[in-house]
Amino acid sequence: MASTAGYLARRAAQKERVRLLYRRALKDTLNWAVHRHLFYQDASDLRDKFEANRHVDNLDVIDRLIDDAEAQYRNFQHPDPYIVPWAPGGSKFTRNPPPPQGIEVIYNYGKEDQ
């Protein structure tokens, strides 16, 4: 019984690693593709690479394939990835932060005090 639980736990961990690797690689493909039609072809090629090893059942072989794919991903990662401007690390991140609590900002824009 313990071996079955260990097998299932290891298999679940492998599936999660593959899912995360595919997702990261797919997002990184957007950094390399200048146009959407190029991205679609690259994404299809990436999917084919993952589907080619879908039939493998040996856990040790799967671990080796995942390690090789992660090493290849690190090797071909984009050196200057696109970052959404308002995300952390983006050009607009915390550009105009809101004032701290307790500070009132009064705007009068040329109107006379009433």
Automatic annotation (TrEMBL):
Gene Ontology CC annotation, any one: mitochondrial inner membrane
Localization annotation: Mitochondrion inner membrane
InterPro entries according to UniProt: Complex1_LYR_dom, Complex1_LYR_NDUFB9_LYRM3, NDUFB9
Subunit text: Mammalian complex I is composed of 45 different subunits.
GO biological process, one term: mitochondrial electron transport, NADH to ubiquinone
Predominant localisation class: mitochondrion
CDD domains per the UniProt record, alphabetical: Complex1_LYR_NDUFB9_LYRM3
Keywords: Acetylation, Electron transport, Membrane, Mitochondrion, Mitochondrion inner membrane, Phosphoprotein, Respiratory chain, Transport
Family designation: Belongs to the complex I LYR family.
Membrane topology qualifier: Peripheral membrane protein
The Complex 1 LYR protein domain, residue ranges: 17-72
Function per UniProt: Accessory subunit of the mitochondrial membrane respiratory chain NADH dehydrogenase (Complex I), that is believed to be not involved in catalysis. Complex I functions in the transfer of electrons from NADH to the respiratory chain. The immediate electron acceptor for the enzyme is believed to be ubiquinone.
Pfam families hit by this protein: Complex1_LYR
Protein name (record): NADH dehydrogenase [ubiquinone] 1 beta subcomplex subunit 9
